[in-house]
Amino acid sequence: MDINLITNILYMTIITGTPILFVALGELVCEKSGVLNLGQEGMMLMGAVFGFIVAYHTESLLLGFTFAMIAGVLMSLLFGVISMHLNANQVATGLALTIFGSGLSAFVGIDYIGKGLEGLSKSNIPLLSDIPVLGKILFSHDILVYISIMLAAVLYYFFKNTRAGLIVKAVGESPESSEAIGLPVLKVRYLAILFGGAMAGLAGAYLSLVITPLWADNMTAGRGWIALALVVFASWRVERAIIGAYLFGFMSIMHLILQGFGVSISSNLLATLPYVVTIVVLVFLSKNQARIKLFAPVSLGKPFHSNR
Amino acid sequence: MFKLESRGHDSKLLAYASPLFAGVLTLICGSILFVLLGKPPLETLYTFFILPISDLYGLSELGVKAAPILLCAIGLAVCYRANVWNIGAEGQLLMGGLVGSWAALSLLDAQGMWVLPSVLIAGMLGGIFWAVIPAYLKTHFNTNEILSTIMLNYISLNILLFAVHGPLKDPHGYNFPESALFSAAQELPILFDGTRLHLGAGLALLAVVVVWVFLSKTFVGFQMQVLGKDARSAHFAGFKDKKLVWLAFIICGALAGLAGVSEVTGPIGQLVPNISPGYGFSAIIVAFLGRLHPIGILFASLLMALMYLGGEMAQINLGLPLAMTGLFQGMLLFFLLACDIFIGYRVVINKRKPTRHIEPAVLSNPSGASTSNLAPPVSLENK
Amino acid sequence: MLRSSLKKLCSSLVFVSLIASVSANVAVANEAKKPLKVGFVYVGPTGDAGWTYAHDNGRKYMEEKLGNKVTTTFVESVAEGADSERVIKQLARSGHGLIFTTSFGYMNPTLKVAKRFPNVKFEHSTGYKRAKNVGTYFDRAYEGRYLAGVTAGLMTKSNILGYVASFAIPEVIRGINAFTLGALSVNPDVKVKVVWVSTWYDPGKERSAAETMILQGADVLTQHTDSPGVINAAEAKGVYAIGYNSDMSVYGPNAHLTAIVHNWGPLYTAKAQAVIDGTWKSENVWDGLAENALDLSPFNPVIPQAIQDQINAVKAAIKSGSLHPFAGPIREQSGAIKIAAGKVIPVGDLMGMNWYVKGVDGKLPH
Questions:
Q1: Which of A37, A40, B16, B336 is least surrounded by CB atoms within 10 angstroms?
Q2: How far is CA A229 from CA A99, B128, C276, in A?
Q3: In the predicted model, what is the mean pLDDT of chain C?
Q4: Distance from A303 to chain B by nearest Cα, in Å?
Q5: For the segment A35-93, what is each residue's pLDDT rounded down to a tens digit?
Q6: Hey, are the CB atoms on A87 and B373 less than 8 Å from each other?
Q7: Alpha-carbon distance values, A161 to A154, A193, A253, B343 (Å)
Q8: Model ipTM?
Q9: Of the CATH numbers 2.60.120.260, 3.10.180.10, 3.40.50.2300, 3.40.50.10610, which one belongs to the domain with range C141-261+326-361?
Q10: Considering only CB atoms, which chain B residues are within 8 Å of C364?
Q11: How many Cβ contacts (< 8 angstroms) between chains B and C?
């Protein structure tokens, strides 16, 4: 393999990993606050379709992305109301959200099948993108790639060094004691859920406006579920989520590249690999009670009845 | 500003009325939706909910569609009662279908009464095998079963695809990804001539009764529910909590595996790439709609199946696009999930801080350990 | 109090709806005596911009051609498991006289239903089992693939062609081989690289697959998957691509050379007319370019006129029957002669094709 090929593989790795990274970051924050939202696919699809529609009519990608995020937020609000205020089971509500979202997105998008769009162009960072090899891999992407990385950095800082980050974690650890010391548990969880929705919407629009600038039913093709696995794989750590997203991107690109070199592995068995690895990571983490407490939000998926 | 206030006890009246309330809301919102779409609302609702089951054949199809969902949901309910958050019924179902198909294909030329039971048992073992993995991980490594079972769902789907594209492919099938057709000795008997209602539906009903009795009348079932309510008390009472976790997983795996093998030996009659359009996931929703009670789940699974049948019917009779039916189904589920809040809570319309009640449901459930907001299972049945 | 009023409301709603729909049904039944009801069972959503979209265009074409002689119904995204039999049966029960089932997985369910409804005609696409009232149909997509190969072979500069493929089933392998033979017929130096994505539909993954082949030097791509992801990739990277299922030029005005377009409309129209006339019989229809069952979409002007003429000449030769894409000599990858010169491949070999011709790079996955 020559250097040009390797450069390009790494370049594609980053692009493939980006939408998953967005969803995973959103879900990570959500899970940190103790909420498990399985409606990622539904929220992504809504983001994808609204992003495409708005961009198609306004010819503004910025507006497209904005409305995609709004669509994601509205969907997550629905999830929040039903699972938080109305105390329905989170898993069931999330699954229902996915059914609802794929139906609604297909319905809204009916008239946009078979329409094309100018996608988001790459923005080379001046000077840096001229660095050989690294310049191509790291500094000649579209702006959202940089945003995803910056966002990850902000979140990393947020959880590590800010009071608000600690509050989110505390709420995820023990909502009862958090409430007892006066933390607004529901509010924190709502904000986390809405953030998750915005990120899922953005990820959906990344698919429909950047990777393949078009709308087609169910075009997310299961990426929301992969992101869900990724959060676990990353053991709820932001920096690991970045690595995990790019690792996933790398593996899926390598699977395609290797075929070109005559290496063929049963793709079905290969497709199980990320999930097997995730389980192994999970087992490794949870083997030690103390260690799991460092990572996994204890109250994940459990309802909370506010007494106030 | 609306505020929710605990009733202090679960309202029996609303326990029955809340599904009705959800139904009415769906009817109203559905009507508005259909009017906006230019479809006659009443006819559309009729097509959705009544036309599919307006004759014996329709009812039989309802049974065919509900059977796998019911089996999975019953198994899941056992797990959820024991506070075991198994999301993996889908994977267990697929494994059951796969192992059952493998057994059936190995016994393709065999004849006799023993063949079908062997195939069914193989399927159940397949489901159990897939369920004990998270059980082992949970009891030995304290691994969160929600996450491990989600992962295992994907793994089993890909193993199934591998098998049907590879080793289990029909050798005379022009390389298409399907197994050979099973023989008559391996197919589940049909309960009523002229329909597809197969023995699997009967087994599902049997499972409802058995699990009901198990949960409400046996000591192990009681232990399991205590474990679900309050793991600490269960521990102090000397219950073998690890064994109970295993048992919950095994029951669910067996039932989901049975659902899978019943699909391949029943209505499908061969192994195909998609033996389940997400029955294991629907079953999660059904388990909660049925409030984790076997009889409730029976009704909820019938409703869920009816929703799918109605969606097909609306496409056929009214030309309603699939996107619409998905939207409508999602809405119905939301209403059903949301309306149950009124069983334990009431709406208060002023801002005055409500006086605190002692809440038995929450008290018995200090860490919010049960994901069910409804909490009544034990008390309902032991009365 | 609340409950009783709720109950009243419910029962009155149900009652009203019962009356309304019963009367509506009677009306429908009276009207429906005349036109032939034609049902379609689709494996994907009509909005997939691919396989199902093309079938639905065929349905619309038929509706337009036959006017008030037919009414059509379709059911989307019908899972290929136990659900398909019920949907097919429901269509048969509700008075449809002709039912098209448009995916391979519907083969056995179609046959099961057909047994119970001897008076209803069924047409199953891409399968190989027939019955008295079940016919099968497909288009000789490989003829289009051959033309695509000719186009690619003439347009490539790098002599490396890329093929994004879904699953290693005969239909797909047949297409790869025809494409390769077409390319080799005009350019003996080409190599065809194949990437299997193991899905019919995942726009992002299809695009990645296309990009990996561009990396490995391919400058004309084609696909046997259902989304325009490959066209997107080619457009972004400045190479050419040949679409599939329908005209995909809107997704890549510069990259899109042409597309192999299924044209199910004429066949659907003919079959429906045959049922109306009482002349329908069970047969295996495998129409090609000659019968207008498929075609190439309009050429991108970037293809020089001389090349366009050459492609059209090949097309004419296939149409007239003087050229068969799978006429010998055809060599296997090993170089051994599979089909001797002067012979044409037997239909059985085409139906169950599981080997690559020489010129395809890489091994066939099993």
A1: B16
A2: 20, 23, 54
A3: 87
A4: 6
A5: 999 999 999 999 999 999 999 999 888 999 999 999 999 999 999 998 888 878 888 88
A6: yes
A7: 10, 21, 35, 42
A8: 0.83
A9: 3.40.50.2300
A10: none
A11: 125
